[in-house]
């Protein structure tokens, strides 16, 4: 199968190429928490340590690219000083796919809102499709009621101010999130920001939905293991407590793994049983990956070898399971690495995990194959566009 | 014992009440003595005396209440705040406590915790602790003491308290011996036995370098490890880090009103199972041999369960 002229044929990619979709601008007044957010998310800075961060004096670009395929979408995060303006930014707003605007929840909102409006106005002319994500930050500082009230008020004022400026601005997409570096609300909000940038999201979600229905899982996430952000989840609503547990689980496993590793240990492990990765019978008919659009997407994969290739069989994919009680019939939290940097975390009924382990494993293999194919396409696309 | 604000109640609440470090900031000063009976390993009842550290209380422990406070002491834990400005007075009280012990409980073991080590820059911790250790040993005037550097924000807390409770377990050596037999049966590279509620390490068996849990030897083993950074050496902090990690994860689970029950992993480097061993203990089995599967390990744990229940039964002073 030959590779079609790509990506210009893809309708959802803007005509100036998809290089832009990877740029994210981090804005907000001084001390609102921009650098903290960037450091906690991508550099594993312990939240308490953000206290010692120096003020940002210059625009700084942080690259989280596909080097080693470390994230599913290559990102370029621009951390800015508080006094930045549209003109001093040093790049046109049309370059950015997303603006993350950080507002300290306890601030006097006048100044941040003016700044936000200024950027919305600046973006409207050159890039009306840009996403504005407003992080109402340091939320943990307030009690639940005050938190909600401030959150509502800020949203209201922003909307009013924008309407005052020009009714056209209503078309600009604005989303509000409550965030804090001290819990996983930041990770969740940023995950949601990312989701809008993943073209193949719908296919990945489809794979996760099939996984959930085949294994009776109430919730499954696909996590990027380095950033601990989730790339996709099934269509059931995300409950914050469950998300937090998954983040904690991932963190615990990644800290645990190096503890007992011995450098004296033998060569890398090989999976004893490597089932031939064909779709499990229950999955084929309902698979969204077999819809025509997904087929078209998947078949563009350059390495479209038979999926049961010999080389792949030797790969070992780590997995883990934590069983929780006393909920009835008991829940097992499973972890399966599906690519070197993506892990499937799922809540499963313990009965399914224990009695029908084969079924679960089949579905993991099937999901892994689906993800891998989507992933190959994404990778081709991003490398192609880098040269256009 | 220890000066007010040195961190005694914080440690107690984290180890024995499963509170996260973040909650300790809300603790008020302890008034007089707070007595707590905590069950450890089911049958071993620890009677913890958390002695409020304000001066007036200290004076009273050393004088009016002297015989009550210092009689029948198994272990004295004296906490020194690393940032204290009144070390002189702290040491003065400490010496008087030792005197009280000599008089009423001469057999008691003494542990000195140099606490809030997280406030010292990471690179300097070892040196600061070494200096403190020397100073405190000198102040103890011949009484054998064990010194630990601790912080509620890292695994050092678990290391120190594992060392402390280890001295209280009556048949520790029998337990270790059986653990070794069990490890062989599992072809395990590492087996670690934890107390269930505190997740403190009570016994270990390792196929690599011996790493006993009691305080004195740990520093020696660590010094050796530091002196010869052997490529093949395992992380010397692995046991206390495990306690810390699992405790934190248990807390995450309980926030979802779930209870952590067991864990199994097949990772690139090893296979591991963490499961209940007896009513009061958890066991962690680490196997590097890729042929051994988690199911086999779980089966072995099930088989060993009775033997270990029996061993613990023997524990009960009838
Ligand atoms: N940085 C740091 N702070 C700590 C540590 N341990 C405890 N603290 C803090 O020290 C303060 C006092 O802790 P407490 O446990 O109440 O002290 P205490 O020794 O019981 O004090 P008294 O009851 O008055 O004798 C709290 O704000 C804790 O959060 C630590 O390891 N590092
Ligand atoms: N309470 C709280 N403080 C935060 C949070 N995020 C950041 N901070 C603090 O806010 C201050 C300013 O953060 P910084 O990232 O330097 O702000 P910037 O100037 O926008 O880059 C620091 O003292 C951080 O510790 C949060 O979620 N909660
Ligand atoms: Mg206290």
Automatic annotation (TrEMBL), chain A:
<keyword id="KW-0342">GTP-binding</keyword>
<keyword id="KW-0547">Nucleotide-binding</keyword>
<dbReference type="GO" id="GO:0009267">
    <property type="term" value="P:cellular response to starvation"/>
</dbReference>
<dbReference type="InterPro" id="IPR027417">
    <property type="entry name" value="P-loop_NTPase"/>
</dbReference>
<dbReference type="Pfam" id="PF04670">
    <property type="entry name" value="Gtr1_RagA"/>
</dbReference>
<dbReference type="GO" id="GO:1904263">
    <property type="term" value="P:positive regulation of TORC1 signaling"/>
</dbReference>
<dbReference type="GO" id="GO:0000329">
    <property type="term" value="C:fungal-type vacuole membrane"/>
</dbReference>
<keyword id="KW-0472">Membrane</keyword>
<dbReference type="GO" id="GO:0005525">
    <property type="term" value="F:GTP binding"/>
</dbReference>
<dbReference type="GO" id="GO:1990131">
    <property type="term" value="C:Gtr1-Gtr2 GTPase complex"/>
</dbReference>
<comment type="function">
    <text>GTPase involved in activation of the TORC1 signaling pathway, which promotes growth and represses autophagy in nutrient-rich conditions.</text>
</comment>
<dbReference type="InterPro" id="IPR006762">
    <property type="entry name" value="Gtr1_RagA"/>
</dbReference>
<dbReference type="GO" id="GO:0010507">
    <property type="term" value="P:negative regulation of autophagy"/>
</dbReference>
<comment type="similarity">
    <text>Belongs to the GTR/RAG GTP-binding protein family.</text>
</comment>
<dbReference type="GO" id="GO:0012505">
    <property type="term" value="C:endomembrane system"/>
</dbReference>
<feature type="region of interest" description="Disordered">
    <location>
        <begin position="268"/>
        <end position="310"/>
    </location>
</feature>
<dbReference type="InterPro" id="IPR039400">
    <property type="entry name" value="RagC/D"/>
</dbReference>
<feature type="compositionally biased region" description="Low complexity">
    <location>
        <begin position="283"/>
        <end position="299"/>
    </location>
</feature>
<keyword id="KW-0378">Hydrolase</keyword>
<dbReference type="GO" id="GO:0005634">
    <property type="term" value="C:nucleus"/>
</dbReference>
<protein>
    <recommendedName>
        <fullName>GTP-binding protein</fullName>
    </recommendedName>
</protein>
<dbReference type="GO" id="GO:0003924">
    <property type="term" value="F:GTPase activity"/>
</dbReference>
TrEMBL record, chain B:
<dbReference type="Pfam" id="PF04670">
    <property type="entry name" value="Gtr1_RagA"/>
</dbReference>
<comment type="similarity">
    <text>Belongs to the GTR/RAG GTP-binding protein family.</text>
</comment>
<comment type="subunit">
    <text>Component of the GSE complex.</text>
</comment>
<dbReference type="GO" id="GO:0009267">
    <property type="term" value="P:cellular response to starvation"/>
</dbReference>
<dbReference type="GO" id="GO:0000329">
    <property type="term" value="C:fungal-type vacuole membrane"/>
</dbReference>
<protein>
    <recommendedName>
        <fullName>GTP-binding protein</fullName>
    </recommendedName>
</protein>
<dbReference type="GO" id="GO:0005634">
    <property type="term" value="C:nucleus"/>
</dbReference>
<keyword id="KW-0547">Nucleotide-binding</keyword>
<comment type="function">
    <text>GTPase involved in activation of the TORC1 signaling pathway, which promotes growth and represses autophagy in nutrient-rich conditions.</text>
</comment>
<dbReference type="InterPro" id="IPR039397">
    <property type="entry name" value="RagA/B"/>
</dbReference>
<dbReference type="InterPro" id="IPR006762">
    <property type="entry name" value="Gtr1_RagA"/>
</dbReference>
<keyword id="KW-0342">GTP-binding</keyword>
<dbReference type="GO" id="GO:1990131">
    <property type="term" value="C:Gtr1-Gtr2 GTPase complex"/>
</dbReference>
<dbReference type="GO" id="GO:1904263">
    <property type="term" value="P:positive regulation of TORC1 signaling"/>
</dbReference>
<dbReference type="InterPro" id="IPR027417">
    <property type="entry name" value="P-loop_NTPase"/>
</dbReference>
<dbReference type="GO" id="GO:0003924">
    <property type="term" value="F:GTPase activity"/>
</dbReference>
<dbReference type="GO" id="GO:0005525">
    <property type="term" value="F:GTP binding"/>
</dbReference>
<keyword id="KW-0175">Coiled coil</keyword>
<dbReference type="GO" id="GO:0010507">
    <property type="term" value="P:negative regulation of autophagy"/>
</dbReference>
<feature type="coiled-coil region">
    <location>
        <begin position="239"/>
        <end position="266"/>
    </location>
</feature>
């Amino acid at each position: 199968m030959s590779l079609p002229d790509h990506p210009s044929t893809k309708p959802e990619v803007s005509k100036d190429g998809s290089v832009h979709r990877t740029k994210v601008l981090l804005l907000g007044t001084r001390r609102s928490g921009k650098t903290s957010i960037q450091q906690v998310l991508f550099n594993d800075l312990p939240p308490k340590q953000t206290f010692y961060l120096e003020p940002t004096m210059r625009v700084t670009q942080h690259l989280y690219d596909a080097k080693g395929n470390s994230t599913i979408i290559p990102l370029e995060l621009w951390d800015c000083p508080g006094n930045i303006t549209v003109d001093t930014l040093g790049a046109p707003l049309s370059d950015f796919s997303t603006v993350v605007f950080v507002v300290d929840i306890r601030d006097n909102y006048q100044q941040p809102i003016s700044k936000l409006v200024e950027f919305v106005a600046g973006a409207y002319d050159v890039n009306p499709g840009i996403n504005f994500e407003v992080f109402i930050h340091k939320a943990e500082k307030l009690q639940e009621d005050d938190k909600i009230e401030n959150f509502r008020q800020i949203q209201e004022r922003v909307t009013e101010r924008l309407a005052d400026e020009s009714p056209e601005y209503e078309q600009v997409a604005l989303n509000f999130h409550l965030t804090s570096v001290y819990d996983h609300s930041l990770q969740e909000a940023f995950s949601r920001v990312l989701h809008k940038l993943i073209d193949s999201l719908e296919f990945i979600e489809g794979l996760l939905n099939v996984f959930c229905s085949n294994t009776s899982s109430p919730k499954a996430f696909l996590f990027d293991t380095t950033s601990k952000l989730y790339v996709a989840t099934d269509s059931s609503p995300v409950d914050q407590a469950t998300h937090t547990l998954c983040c904690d689980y991932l963190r615990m496993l990644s800290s645990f793994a190096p503890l007992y590793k011995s450098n004296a240990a033998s060569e890398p492990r090989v999976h004893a049983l490597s089932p031939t990765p064909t779709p499990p019978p229950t999955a084929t008919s309902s698979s969204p990956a077999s819809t025509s659009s997904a087929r078209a997407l998947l078949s563009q994969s350059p390495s479209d070898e038979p999926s049961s290739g010999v080389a792949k069989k030797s790969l070992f994919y780590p997995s883990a399971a934590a069983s929780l009680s006393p909920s009835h019939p008991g829940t097992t939290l499973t972890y399966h690495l599906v690519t070197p940097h993506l892990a499937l975390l799922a809540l499963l009924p313990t009965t399914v995990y224990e009695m029908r382990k084969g079924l679960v494993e089949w579905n993991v293999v099937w999901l892994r194959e689906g993800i891998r194919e989507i992933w190959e396409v994404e990778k081709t696309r991003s490398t192609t566009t880098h040269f256009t | 014992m220890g000066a007010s604000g040195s961190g005694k109640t914080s440690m107690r609440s984290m180890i024995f009440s499963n509170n996260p470090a973040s909650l300790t900031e809300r603790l008020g000063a302890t008034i007089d003595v707070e007595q707590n009976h905590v069950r450890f390993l089911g049958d071993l009842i620890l009677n913890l005396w958390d002695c409020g550290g304000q001066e007036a209380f200290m004076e009273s422990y050393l004088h009016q209440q002297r015989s009550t406070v210092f009689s029948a002491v198994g272990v004295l834990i004296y906490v020194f705040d690393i940032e204290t400005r009144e070390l002189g007075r702290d040491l003065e009280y400490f010496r008087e406590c030792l005197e009280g012990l000599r008089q009423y409980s001469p057999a008691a073991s003494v542990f000195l915790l140099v606490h809030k080590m997280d406030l010292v820059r990471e690179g300097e911790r070892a040196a600061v602790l070494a200096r403190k250790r020397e100073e405190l040993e000198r102040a103890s005037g011949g009484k054998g003491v064990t010194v630990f550097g601790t912080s509620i924000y890292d695994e050092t807390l678990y290391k120190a308290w594992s060392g402390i409770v280890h001295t209280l377990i009556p048949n520790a050596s029998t337990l270790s011996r059986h653990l070794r037999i069990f490890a062989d049966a599992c072809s395990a590279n590492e087996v670690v036995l934890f107390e269930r509620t505190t997740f403190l390490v009570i016994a270990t068996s390792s196929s690599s370098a011996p790493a006993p849990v009691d305080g004195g030897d740990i520093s020696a083993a660590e010094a050796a490890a530091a002196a010869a950074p052997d490529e093949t050496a395992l992380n010397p902090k692995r046991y206390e880090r495990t306690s810390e990690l699992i405790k934190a994860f248990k807390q995450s689970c309980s926030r979802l009103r779930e209870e952590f029950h067991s864990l199994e992993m097949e990772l690139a480097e090893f296979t591991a199972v963490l499961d209940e061993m007896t009513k009061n203990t958890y066991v962690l089995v680490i196997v590097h041999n890729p042929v051994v599967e988690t199911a086999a390990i779980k089966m072995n744990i099930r088989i060993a369960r009775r033997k270990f229940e029996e061993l613990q039964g023997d524990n009960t002073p009838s």
